[in-house]
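Me: I'm a chemist; would you kindly supply a protein sequence with its C-alpha cells?

Assistant:
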Amino acid sequence: KFPVMGVRWRSSLTLGEKEEVNNKNSEDGGNKEVVASYWGIKGEEVKKEDGTPWKWNCFRPWETYQADLTIDLKKHHVPTTFLDKLAYWTVKSLRFPTDIFFQRRYGCRAMMLETVAAVPGMVGGMLLHCKSLRRFEHSGGWIKTLLDEAENERMHLMTFMEVSQPRWYERALVFTVQGVFFNAYFLAYLASPKLAHRVVGYLEEEAIHSYTEFLKELDKGTIENVPAPAIAIDYWRLPADSTLRDVVMVVRADEAHHRDVN
C-alpha cells in the first residue's frame, strides 16, 4: 500500500476496497464515484477465467504468467571490449554504496532498487520508438520487449510495496537516485545503446546475487517468510498458499531473463 499525503492512488485500489469507499461515500451522503482508471474514466469490467471479478487495476489477467524457474542463474557475460569493461566496473562501483546503505534489509532494498530497475526499459523503448518514427522503419520487436521489461520491473515494485514500507528518507532518496539515473542512462543510450544494455545486463547479474542473499536470509529465519501478497499470487499465477520465498524465487527468475535479453 502506497500512501500519498495520507491516501492511496485510485488506480492501486482493489475492487473490494473501491466498494468499501463507495459504501462510505453513500453513508456520508457523498456522490463521488471511485473509478478504475488513473484518468477518471471507468473501464470495462474484467473477470478471471472462472468468472469472478478481476480486482487489480495495475495489470490485467492476460498479462499474468508463470516464471521460468529453470533459467540459468549463474550465466555471466565476461567483459572483453572496452565498453564491456566500462559497464561492468560502473555497476560494481554502484554496488558498494548500495551495500553500505541497505546492508541486510533485503525487503526494503528490493523495493527501493526496483524504482530504478524499471527505468532502463522505459528509456530504451522510448528512444527506439522515436527512432522508428524518425526513420519510418520497424523496430524489430525491441520496443515492446523493452517496455514489457519496464512493466515487469514495475510489478516487482508493486509487489514489494506490500511487504516493506519505505521510510521518509528512503522515499526522498528515490527522487534523487531516479532523477540522476534516468538522465545518465538517457545520455548513455544516445551515445551507445550497446553500452547501455551491457550496464543493464550487469545490473541484473547483481540483482540475481541480491535476491539469492534474500533467499538465504529467509531460509535462516532472519527474515520472516510471510504469506505472499495477493497481487503476487495473481501476477505470477502462484498457488494460494505461496510465501514470500516463492515470490523472491519468481522475481529472481525474471531478473535472470532480463539479464539474458540485455
About this structure: The radius of gyration is 20 Å. DSSP finds nine helices and two strands in the chain.
